[in-house]
Amino acid sequence: MLENVLKRDRDVVLAGLIAITLLAWVYLVFLAQPMGSMNSMSLGQAGTAQMGADPMAMARPQMSMWSTTEFLLTLAMWSVMMVAMMTPSAAPMILLYASIERKRQNQQSPLGRTGLFVAGYIVVWVLFSLAATAIQALLHQAALLSPAADATSTALGGLLLIVAGLFQFSPLKYRCLHHCRSPLAFLLGEWRAGPGGAWWMGLRHGAYCLGCCWALMLLLFVAGVMNLLWVAALAALILLEKIAPAGLILGRVAGVGFLLWGGWLLIEPLLGMA
What we know:
Blueprint: H1 2-32, H2 34-40, H3 45-53, H4 68-105, H5 111-141, H6 154-167, H7 171-181, H8 183-190, H9 194-218, H10 220-223, H11 228-243, H12 247-273
C-alpha cells in the first residue's frame, strides 16, 4: 500500500517538475524570437535603437541607464532561465525528499513541504539572477555586450572562459558538487523537520548548486544570454555533472575545453598584430 502511495507522490512531483521546466523553456523560446527579444529582454532600448541606425555605435560606450521596468524584465528572464536550466538537475534530490517525507509522515501528503523545498531552492537562483541582471546592466553600459547579450570584447569572453575553466578544478567546485551528486547523504546530513525545515533544506541545496555552477552561468555572457543552443548545452553539462557516473571526468574535460577556448580568444588578437 505504501509503495503505491509513494509512487503516486513521486508521479505528482515529477509531473510538476516537468511542467515547470517546460513552461520555463517555452517562455525562453518566446523571448528568443526577434519581437520577444525587443519587447521583453531589457537590453537598453535607447542603445539598441542607436546601434540599429548607426553600425559604428557598437564601438562607442552606451551610457544610457536601464529603467526599473527594463531591469525587472531582465530579472524575470534570468530567473526563468535558471528554473529551466537547474530544475532537471535538482529533480533527483526533490523526488528523494518527497519519498522520505512521505515515509516520515505516513498519512500526510508530502506535497506541501516538497513545494517549500522547491521554493527555497528557486529563491537561491532568483537571488543569483538579481546579481546576474546587475552585471548585465553594467556590461551594457560599458558597451561590452551586444544587443544579444554576448561579449563584444574577446578579452572579456576569454577571461570568463578561463575563470570557468579554472573553477572546474577548484576544491570548492567539488565540495559543492559532492552534495549535489549525493542526494541521500545531503538529506541525512541536513535534515530539518517541519515546513521550516523543508524551506531551509531547499535553501541549502540551492546554495550548494550555486556553489558548483555559478562560473558556468557566467559563460552565458560568452555566446549570448538568449542563445538557446548555448543555454541548453550548459544545462546539459550541469545535469551530466550531477547525475552521470562519469560526471566528474566530464566536468574536468569541459574545464580543459574552456581554458583552451579562453586562451585562444586572448592570444588571437596578439597573433593578428604580429
